[in-house]
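Action item from last week, closing it out:
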Amino acid sequence: MPENKAAATIFMIVRGQVLRAFNGEYDVDVDLNHVALWKAIEKFPGGIRDEWGTFQKILRAWHMAQQLKRDKED
């Protein structure tokens, strides 16, 4: 589906734009930077039909990837 391709492209662009917090030992990725994500959605060539749905898809994908990363570390 074209919407998923656009979401995947935007995900690859913004996946490194994260908010971090120090947990006492090291910095931990807390969330994807929503401002960077919204800007990428707004500026995507050709536009995004369902901006809110795309935003939610990308956030879910990022959080799922982070959970898989944490599960590997344990």
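Closing note: The chain has a mean pLDDT of 93.
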